[in-house]
Design a protein that fits this description.
Blueprint: E1 2-8, H1 27-42, E2 49-52, H2 56-65, E3 71-73, H3 82-90, E4 98-103, H4 107-116, E5 129-134, E6 145-150
Parallel strand pairs: 1-4, 2-3, 2-4
Antiparallel strand pairs: 1-5, 5-6
Helix pairs in contact: 1-2, 3-4
């Protein structure tokens, strides 16, 4: 079994004149990212690998969620569609059992929906994550079971 954790970056600032990739987290975003890390520990999840967009807000989120963790920055995650994110996941080393993908909406939300066919979805706000389990190898991933959905506004 493999576990995919799909995480949308935590809340970021909106500052006029600052380019989108350079937007950092707000104080609330930093708190929420730390809560994500605590939630993953509580769930017994320790990613073997983190694939992360290179934007400032995703980098900060990943580093607060998994300090000192094995983080690889993938420029293709920034502004990626769900099918592009799925292709990145499919290229993951088969030795990786638990993978954390840190990215942006709408791609990460659509990836979760595409893998789990979740009806009655309530959205994917900043700092939200979904835990998806699958019996598939990464290379053949096309569906999974949504085990947990977590939203910082609810915690």
């Amino acid at each position: 079994m493999r576990t995919l954790i799909v995480l949308r970056h935590a809340k970021a600032v909106h500052t006029p004149g600052l380019s989108d990739p350079e937007r950092p987290l707000t104080e609330r975003g930093e708190r929420d990212a730390r809560k994500v890390g605590e939630a993953l520990v509580t769930l017994g999840l320790r990613p073997d690998l983190v694939l992360c967009s290179p934007s400032v807000r995703t980098r900060q989120t990943a580093e607060l969620v998994l300090p000192g963790g094995p983080i690889e920055f993938e420029r293709d995650i920034y502004e990626a569609y769900a099918d592009e994110l799925l292709e990145l996941v499919r290229r993951t080393d088969p030795q990786v059992r638990t993978l954390l993908l840190v990215g942006h909406n709408p791609g990460v939300h659509e990836l979760v929906l595409g893998l789990t066919s979740r009806d009655g979805d309530t959205g994917f706000p900043p700092g939200a994550f979904a835990v998806i389990e699958t019996d598939d190898e990464w290379a053949g991933l096309d569906s999974g079971r949504a085990v947990t959905r977590w939203n910082p506004k609810e915690h």
